[in-house]
Amino acid sequence: MQNTISTSTIKRFLAWAFGLAWPGMLAIAYFYAINQKLVGNILSASVVMFAPMVAAFLAKAPVKSIGWKLKLASKWRDYLACWLAICSIILGGALVYFAVFPQHLAFALNPQVALQILMILTVLTLAISLSGLGEEVGWRGILYPYLKERYGRTKGRIIGGLIWAIWHFPVNMIGAGMLGERFLNLIPYYIMAISFGIILDIYYVRSKTIWLPAFGHGVIDAVAMITTVFTVSGVETFKFLGPSPTGLFSALIALVIAVWLTTREERESQQGIS
Prior knowledge:
The protein has 274 residues and is mostly helical. The protein has helices at 7-33, 37-46, 51-58, 76-100, 111-151, 153-167, 169-172, 179-184, 186-207, 211-229, 248-273.
């Protein structure tokens, strides 16, 4: 799918990816602190999420060979499978959370809410996919291939997921709660990042187009918003558990699916060799 990437290129890429994004994330934290969340969200979608792509170009990584054809006609089954897997993870985790904490559920499926959900699943997903492309070019397109070649497929993906999670660290510190609570919430977040990273990379390898993990990234960020639609307004949820995809319930479901897809990939690879 692309040429071998050198260690020096990856070092430059990571330096740029973190150096460009972390100041932006600190700015997002500031706008959240002064209750200007809309400004923070715009900054995230328009600037921070494109840092890995810009970093890849600045590091002179082989960006041209990562697979730029959309391949909707030939790979629509992979797009659909990716969408179904991610929706199952996020909504399944939310379902478990609300089953445990029914007092946090605000179930009101009226036309207005139905329209919100429809917009999230369609227009918003596609819009966020464009921002997701900014990240996926750098992570799945450049970093993961290097790590898999150097450390092996599974270990490389795990390391890539850890780097991806650490990159988000300043954003993870945003929000209410004690500092210790925020660090505790990193546990399910890291499980989620590693698992989703594996899932997105598997579908990237299958499709050979960077647009598929970008689409999957958009689905993750968009469908996560559905969990807020069904959460009672003003209630302090147990973020360690959910109902968002960064909670433990969704993270564990993501881990199970990531393991299953990895096992299937290994089996298909062995059958191809034999």
